[in-house]
Design a protein that fits this description.
Strand content: 5-15%
Order of helices and strands: HEHHEEHEEEEEHHHHH
Number of strands: 8
Helix content: 25-40%
Strand order of the largest sheet: 4-5-3-7-6
Radius of gyration: 21 Å
Largest sheet: 5 strands, antiparallel
Length: 275
């Protein structure tokens, strides 16, 4: 039995949901039909893709405490190749403040209440009791890992764990991201146009923008599914233009999505539709 598998089973026995990590700190593709991105998911995204697997197979959503799953056929090879063990902090009511370099650690020592700390390769994990939304780059070298993400297990750490303070919660007050102009691949025409008037397409794009901007949670999944719906309805006849796609990207960016996330979701939606 590998060291990582032994660690994973010990954590699971304590109620910590775990999963294996490949080199590069990314999860394994647990479903051969998905292969990370072909069903709309990404290894480190906050929500799993809309795959048809018997159980979620992407990243944090695959974390489990079930020893039959951990030692079962899905992960049997993964543990032999694993570079690390990951866990879902929010799944056990924890928040990890991931400090990625010495300046970030110094900032935390000046700013945040003392709590349990775990050394990392370049900095420290500060672990608080209490769950919250997760966010990357809340300031230079600082990520928040709690609900709907995974964190590497690097040991139990030292110090007494304290309650999640408001100073940490305040780090992820949502602010709209600057909207950047993008150019994306829009399918060429060739199919029969079902749009009797330009108003049909305009109404569809406006509804898609509204669906994205009104999303209060699961923004990644909402963006992907909206892109999928728009491309399914308007992507094959040539009516959909770069300007329409740019409007959808802009709506997603106001919800905090990056251009890369938007591009990935657009590409995955086209792939799913065979475009």
């Amino acid at each position: 039995m590998s060291t990582h598998l032994t660690t994973a089973l010990a954590l699971a026995a304590r109620g910590v949901p775990v999963l294996p990590l490949h080199k590069g700190k990314v999860p394994f593709a647990n479903c051969p039909a998905c292969l990370y991105t072909s069903c709309g998911g990404r290894p480190n995204m906050k929500t799993p893709g809309p795959c048809q697997c018997p159980r979620p197979c992407h990243a944090w959503a695959a974390a489990t405490t079930d020893p039959n799953v951990i030692t079962g056929p899905t992960w049997s090879t993964a543990w032999k190749q694993a570079a690390a063990v990951a866990y879902h902090p929010g799944g056990i009511g924890l928040t990890v403040v991931d400090l990625d370099h010495a300046d970030a650690v110094a900032w935390a020592r000046r700013t945040l209440p003392a709590t349990r700390t775990v050394p990392t390769t370049r900095g420290e994990h500060w672990i608080y009791q209490g769950a919250m939304a997760s966010a990357n780059a809340v300031r230079d070298g600082v990520d928040i890992k709690s609900t709907m993400v995974y964190a590497r297990w690097l040991g139990p750490g030292t110090g007494t764990m304290t309650s999640l303070p408001d100073t940490v919660r305040a780090l992820i007050v949502e602010k709209p991201s600057p909207v950047r102009t993008v150019t994306v691949a829009v399918p060429a025409g060739g199919g029969e146009c079902r749009h009797r008037t330009p108003a049909y397409l305009e109404r569809g794009i406006a509804m898609a923008e509204q669906r994205i901007t009104e999303a209060s949670s699961a923004v990644h999944a909402t963006v992907y599914r909206t892109f999928l719906a728009v491309l399914s309805a308007h992507g094959r006849c040539g009516c959909l233009t770069d300007a329409h796609a740019a409007r959808l990207f802009a709506a997603a960016q106001t919800k905090g999505e990056t251009v890369r996330h938007c591009t990935d979701a657009w590409t995955n939606a086209r792939t799913a539709l065979g475009m």
